[in-house]
Amino acid sequence: MAASPLLERWIRCLECIKKKQRLQLLGVACMLIASKYEEICAPRVEEFCFITDNTYTREEVLKMESKVLNFLYFQLSVPTTKTFLRRQAQESEILTIDVKPGWKKGTKITFPDKGNEQPNQLPAALVFVIDEKPYDLYKRDGNDLIVNKRVSLAEALGGGGGDDTIF
């Protein structure tokens, strides 16, 4: 997976590839670099020569590897979506909403000074609006929850039969 961005960055410099037949050598060199960067036990250079049907020697692969690394100034890491998401998750603040019993649909919950204050946007607090969804087992009657469940007389007299749904 890491070989593809390396290859793309190198191909942008078209004068580096004088002949199309060297493109396979470039690809193998990028795979070698990526395997050294990503794998715990990277394959030996001879294995990369083997996958080219020994079209290139060990020295040619290593020389191309050196050219690629020098061209990229040894900067192999490229930011990906995963990189940004990981960083965002580390910097994000987790807000807790304590929904009070009896809050109706449309109730607004605000977090002052937590909203977006970027240029060209109106600064605002973060606002959540409660939206009640129907549920087959429970119904709301004002502040009360009504459970609609059949129980036998023995379960009712004995304190329930066990298989209650927790909400």
Automatic annotation (TrEMBL):
Which keywords accompany this UniProt record? Answer: Chaperone
Query: Is Disulfide bond one of the keywords?
Result: no
Top-level taxonomic group: Eukaryota
A GO term, aspect molecular function: protein-folding chaperone binding
Q: Which Pfam families match?
A: Cyclin_N
Cellular component GO terms held in the UniProt record: cytosol
Q: Name one GO biological process term.
A: protein folding
Where is each Cyclin N-terminal domain found?
5-77
Cited PANTHER family: DNAJ HEAT SHOCK FAMILY PROTEIN, DNAJ HOMOLOG SUBFAMILY C MEMBER
Q: What is this protein called?
A: Cyclin N-terminal domain-containing protein
Organism equals Gossypium mustelinum
